[in-house]
UniProtKB/TrEMBL annotation:
Ranges annotated as biased composition (Basic and acidic residues): 397-409
InterPro entries found in the cross-reference section: MFS (IPR011701), MFS_dom (IPR020846), MFS_Efflux_Transporters (IPR050189), MFS_trans_sf (IPR036259)
Region called Disordered, residue ranges: 389-409
Principal place of residence: membrane
Protein name: MFS transporter
Topology term for the membrane: Multi-pass membrane protein
Alphabetical list of PANTHER family matching this protein: CHLORAMPHENICOL EFFLUX PUMP RV0191 (PTHR43124:SF3), PURINE EFFLUX PUMP PBUE (PTHR43124)
Ranges of residues in domain Major facilitator superfamily (MFS) profile: 2-379
Alphabetical UniProt keywords: Cell membrane, Membrane, Transmembrane, Transmembrane helix
Membrane spanning stretches: 44-63, 70-89, 95-121, 133-154, 160-180, 201-223, 235-255, 267-285, 291-313, 334-353, 359-377
Domain of life: Bacteria
Keyword Membrane: yes
Coiled coil start-end: none
Length: 409
């Protein structure tokens, strides 16, 4: 089990590295393909669009494919997308390659989260999922700075090539360590879509889009805030972003056990603390030490919210959790786009570089309101029963597969 979770974490590490390394290499990419830096920024949008489209589409296409085989296919597509990015001769093909690289992102996380939750006892499911997400947070500490430095030293193509190598390592680890998890007779696109029609799933996705939009409203403008208001030099911002990643790692580690104990209270507390931290940063951004401490806490609370939202969606989708889990990452990318847009509007309106903090806090509070609405609608329900049903389904499917191998009816 630990090796299987490590394999899933390696996949998440590769995804996190390729998603965010582009942002640090925009000047080099712009020079390499002959476009302006703002135009090169569309590559970030191309990847995000791939995530939004690919999560439901690829999960639906693979609804009847056993989870391990689907993970291998999606990882192969991830490798192809990054190799294509490294070899793209012009901006148009690079844009298409980044879209291709983003397609398996959400589906990999969705299928991976379901697989991780079924590797352990039901009462430890959230901890297992959070261990997978650790790969994403560690990518912000190690992968993104290393990829950026590699691209700056040896050319931006080398960064995508390195990510492709990480993808190949992840592919081998998945093949070796992740056990087979058969699909049930009820699996299929219609079954997954019926689960997506659950109102609680819709509210959960809305919570992710709105609440996590508060995180991205600030993250998107963190570097100019640090340089213009805190007085940190451009050369030091990479270290500060790594500190942000440390906070995200700590938040992920804490969220797993707490989500296993009490899912909704963990979600409520995470969103409330995120809103409080963003308001605090509005005031501490002008002083270096308090600003760095607040940044670490914001990173922790942003990551802290991820696990309970993921587990809530998987729980409410009941026996068809894969598409709901994958769509969560479409929701996060919509939050990225929406939060950045709203934060930019505040800056453009002349409210100052610190104003995205207040926008982010408002979004976090709105997300908290959606989460409370879902909780009121769900009053009296027990999280553990829903999670257990998924584990029980997996056990039943395994028994049926064993009986079929033995020639039993």
């Amino acid at each position: 089990m630990p090796l299987a979770l490590l394999a899933l974490a390696v996949v998440a590490f590769g995804i996190g590295t390729t998603e965010f390394a582009t942002m640090g290499l925009l000047p080099q990419i712009a020079d390499g393909v002959g476009v302006s830096v703002p135009h090169a920024g569309n590559l970030v949008s191309a990847y995000a669009l791939g995530v939004v489209v690919g999560a439901p589409v690829l999960t639906g296409i693979g609804a009847r494919i056993p989870h391990k085989r689907l993970l291998l296919l999606l990882s192969g597509l991830f490798v192809v997308g990054n190799i294509a990015s490294a070899l793209a001769p012009d901006f148009g093909l690079l844009f298409a390659a980044r879209f291709l690289a983003g397609l398996p992102h959400g589906a990999l996380f969705g299928v991976g989260a379901v697989v991780a939750s079924r590797l352990v006892a039901p009462e430890r499911a959230a901890r297992a999922v959070s261990r997978m997400f650790l790969g994403l947070t560690v990518a912000n500490i190690v992968g993104v700075p290393a990829g950026t430095a590699l691209g700056q030293q040896f050319g931006w193509r080398s960064a995508y090539g390195a990510v492709a190598v990480i993808g190949l390592v992840a592919l081998a680890a998945l093949a070796l360590f992740v056990p087979h998890q058969p699909r049930g007779s009820q699996s299929g696109i219609r079954h997954e879509l019926r689960a997506m029609g659950n109102r609680q799933v819709a509210i959960g996705l809305g919570t992710a889009v709105v609440g996590f939009g508060g995180f991205f409203a600030v993250y998107s403008y963190l570097v100019p805030m640090l340089t213009h208001l805190t007085g940190i030099s451009d050369s030091s911002t990479t270290l500060v972003l790594a500190l942000y990643g440390v906070g995200m790692t700590l938040g992920t580690l804490i969220a797993g056990p707490l989500t296993d104990r009490a899912l909704r209270p963990t979600l409520y507390g995470g969103l409330a603390l995120l809103a409080a931290a963003l308001v605090t940063f509005y005031f501490t951004v002008h002083s270096t030490v308090p600003a760095l401490a607040t940044i670490t806490f914001i990173g922790a609370m942003g990551a802290f919210v991820t696990t309970p939202v993921q587990m809530l969606l998987m729980a409410k989708a009941k026996n068809a959790p894969t598409m709901a889990a994958a769509s969560n990452h479409s929701a996060f990318n919509l939050a990225n786009a929406g939060g950045a847009w709203l934060g930019g509007l505040a800056i453009s309106a002349g409210w100052g570089w610190a104003s995205p903090n207040l926008v982010g806090a408002a979004l976090a509070v709105a997300g908290l309101g959606l989460a409370f609405t879902g909780g009121l609608m769900d009053r009296g329900g027990r999280r553990s029963e829903v999670i257990t049903s998924s584990a029980a389904e997996a056990a039943t499917e395994t028994e049926h597969a064993a009986a079929a191998r033995n020639g039993e009816p």
